[in-house]
Amino acid sequence: MAVLQILTVPHPVLSKKCRAVGPGEFDASLARLVSDLAETMYAAPGVGLAAPQCGDLRRVIVVDPGNCTGEQDEDGRPTNPRFLALVNPQVIEASADKMVYEEGCLSVPDFEENIARPRRVHIRFLDERGVPWQRWFEDYDAIVVQHEMDHLEGVVILDRVSRLKKGRYLAKRTKVRVRHDGSLEY
Ligand SMILES: [Zn+2]
Q: Is 148 among the catalytic positions?
């Protein structure tokens, strides 16, 4: 296990669409990716992490929404880590009912914004051994899973706020110029 580096915007990998993990790829490399992502998430600390945030373009996320409320040791690490790995996650059904939550992101430091997402989502995914699952996620759990799934599409929370807010944030953080169509000029 290793703590990986977390990429931050405007790193170009964060806007790439990830590729599905194939049937023959549930191997040692995938197992290592999952355990490294979990260790990196707990070290941050965070409640979810997507592979592209660490520069890997496989469709893999880890989540542990209970991490912020669970018991921790003196180093701030959970004493009973129970993360869930979702490989190739897909939304089967989403509630019309929305929930607004002030989201932050390890790849977008010092930025929080209210974002509305479906309150309940039914997700189909594979675990790290390739076993298929279907599960409903609700409320905060649903927010975390949807946030991490956005990363697999190359979408970060900055892409869900106004162009003006996004431009202001990026201008403050970097020397990057934002074109009128919202794309970035390096
Ligand atoms: Zn994020």
A: yes
